[in-house]
Amino acid sequence: MSHSEADLAANKYGPLCLGLAGPFQSICIVGEPRPGKKLLVLDIDHTIYDPSDHGGSRGSVVRSNSCGLYDESITARCRPGLHEFLANVYLEYDIMVWSASDMLRILTLLQQLGMCGAGHSDYRVVAVLDIVSMSELSASASGAADASADANDRLASSGILTQSVVVPQGALPGQQIEVTSIVDGAPMIVTVPVGLSPGDAFNVTMPGAVSSLSEEHGLDASDIQLALQLSLGQRPSPFQEDNSCEVVAPMPKARRKGRRVKPLSLIWACAEFSHFYSEKNTVIVDDTIDVCSANPRNSIQCIRYFWQDHNSDTELKRLQQYLLKIAQGPEFPQTHERWRDSVS
Predict the structure, then answer these.
(1) Are strands 38-42 and 93-98 parallel, antiparallel or unpaired?
(2) Which residues, 6+ apart, have CB-to-CB distance to 304 below 8 Å?
(3) What domains does the chain contain, in order, with CATH numbers?
């Protein structure tokens, strides 16, 4: 790489960026590929890190306090065992990060987490991809009903506010699943609630149904949620043992299946990476099921991570065991849909 190319990369994304790749020069190179290694592509938010509220602050980027120290919540925001996981899988895999966020936010966060720059010496990230590198599937590929401009209007006029969903075999609490809308047959994404097992049924609110009803009648959305739950027999006890009022957990929301995806072919087509990685040695790990729909045979879905589960979450331990196991085989499995079945 010439000095001018390196200077261009540094000017665009800062000193962490060693070079640019991809058709739009949107892939930030921060390390070197290693011959003979497989490729692990990792999502960030709710896969290895939780950016949601913690102690009154959000963690899209870790902030420092008045003393110059980073927010202590960073430990809980990171999925348990993150750096041990990265160091161990690095023995067999090169690592890339792909997040549906902007590049400067991603690089800043990775540096603060110690994943890039002067961080851990026992692993190194090769490249970082952001939302600019994502693609949009055609309407036919993601479901014609999803492409309809008046989908929410038809949903509101149907009068259907909730739908019953059955947990499929192999699904775990916190995992996203795809279901079919009873209104228009469009694919929807819902998250399996805590405490449920395969075969259990639960209710979800339809995409936009509560907000549409709230706007139409001038009602508070939380009041509509409570009314729906009461109508379905989900009646809270008036008081808990500590004499505080019990609040019913919000009903899960369904959302339309998105069309924005992370196509691994973008990485495989880059001159900088094409000699190292292909569909035969690449896996992508993400908590969001639909963003990986462009490469279903290469995707591993993990449970969504929230910092409240920091003390009980063991997802990275299982994932590490699985990744190292398939790395030793003659070739990757044709699907990773039931990846947990092969690990303890």
Answers:
(1) parallel
(2) 46, 47, 174, 175, 176, 191, 287
(3) 3-136+259-342 (3.40.50.1000), 144-256 (no CATH)
- Tokens representing 231? 């109508």
28 CB burial (10 A radius; 0-12, 13-18, 19+): buried
Q: What residues have CB less than 8 Å from 159, skipping those under 6 apart?
A: none
**Beta strands 93-98; 125-129: pairing state:** parallel
Render pLDDT for 301-314 as a digit per residue (tens, 0 to 9).
999 999 999 999 99
224: helix, strand or coil:
helix
Best CA proximity match to 30, nearest among 121, 132, 99, 128: 128
Region class of 278: left (phi > 0), else alpha (psi between -120 and 50), else beta: beta
For 25-69, the pLDDT digits (tens) are 999 999 999 999 999 999 999 999 998 877 666 666 666 555 555
